[in-house]
Amino acid sequence: MNKLLIVTAALLLPLVGQSQTGGLPGFEVGKAASLSGVERVTQVLVPPPAVPVHSQVNAGKPRIVQVRLVIEEKEIELAPGAYVWAFTFNGSVPGPLIVAHEGDYIELTLVNPETSQLPHNIDFHAATGAMGGGALTMVAPGQEVVLRWKATKPGVFVYHCAPGGVMVPWHVVHGMNGAVMILPRDGLKDANGTAIRYDRAYYIGEQDYYLPQEADGKYKRYASPALSLNDDLQVMRGLIPTHVAFGGKVGALTGNNAMKASVGETVLFIHSQANRPSYPHLIGGHADYLWERGKFNDPPLRGQESWSIAAGSAGAFVYTFKQPGMYAYLSHNLIEATMLGAISHILVDGKWDNDLMQQIKPATAIK
Ligand code: CU1
């Protein structure tokens, strides 16, 4: 009998060895499609507001898009005298935009260097299962992990760190979020199916911060992120941010840091907010085509003045600039725009069109 058991066990061992792994622990795992022969491309990620080089249409077969995110915890001065321990993907707040096409696979290597003090992971709103991948990507300092997920939904989507409980908002409001853009394989379209193409694209990640202050109003500064935790939570509980930055810092995209465009150019803007709503508006322009909820299977709205970005989502719009000058793209909660930092600039060159707007008489004293 014992001999029979040993023989049976020996026969079963190869089957056990063949069982699928890689899924959520505790569940039977189905086999992935064979990806042998599928083209692999490495995407070079860039700090926002830049977006990676990409094609707007990809009529070819789905590919595996390899990306690498290295976590960096570092103190930044987000406004004069206002410091925060930023938790970043690849060093930027927000993290870089990742671009792929519907049907592609994203293969992420997430690296948490030994120099980090905290564990981190990543939840992709564009992905399916395992807390958006958060349950399969937790990495302690000194670890790295590789996760592959299939892009089944076209649109723009948030990603963010989600290490559990109150750590989720704490990491998110310390900058640990970004966005993914999954383009339809045949590109963007209007409600009639007519192609929409853009000449350039910008990614604006809106970041709310909750900085503790001294009794005299000065912002507190901490020797490590953990030391700020209790004070941070007190401010976060009030739900009123001390800063709301377009880009990781107040003024990151204004003045000399303005985004650039030219009259006649069609620009795609992607805007994400991982933690609270926003109300974008382009002063002196419009959203010619707007995917307010950021999902490209929906027909875009046309000619919009202001719109909403839901907490934990991204939206996208295109605008063809018709006049030169400095534009402000902001949250039309004007208090947040002017007092907390929720504003960016776009410097547009080109020729003014008097038909669209003309000052008939300069300001002079009333007669
Ligand atoms: Cu994190």
Task: Give a written overview of the molecule.
12% of the residues lie in helices and 34% in strands. It is mainly beta. The protein has two domains: 10-17 and 41-55 and 62-185, Cupredoxins -  blue copper proteins (Immunoglobulin-like); 202-349, Immunoglobulin-like. The strands form five sheets. The protein has a six-stranded mixed β-sheet with strand order 13-12-15-19-17-18. β2 and β3 form a beta hairpin. The chain is flat and about 85 Å long. The relative contact order is 0.13. Bound molecules: copper (I) ion (CU1). Copper (I) ion is lined by residues 87, 120, 161, 163, 171, 176.
N→C terminal distance:
115 Å
**How do the SSEs run, as a string of H and E?**
HEEEEEEEEHEEEEHEEEEEEEEHE
Major beta sheet, strand line-up: 13-12-15-19-17-18
Report the CATH topology name of the largest domain.
Immunoglobulin-like
Lay out the secondary structure.
Elements: H1 2-18, E1 40-42, E2 64-79, E3 82-89, E4 98-101, E5 105-112, E6 123-124, E7 143-150, E8 155-160, H2 167-172, E9 177-183, E10 188-189, E11 195-196, E12 200-209, H3 225-237, E13 243-246, E14 259-262, E15 266-273, E16 280-282, E17 287-291, E18 301-304, E19 313-320, E20 325-331, H4 334-340, E21 343-349
Parallel strand pairs: 1-2, 2-5, 4-9, 12-15, 14-21
Antiparallel strand pairs: 2-3, 5-7, 6-8, 8-9, 10-11, 12-13, 15-19, 16-20, 17-18, 17-19, 20-21
This protein binds copper (I) ion (CU1).
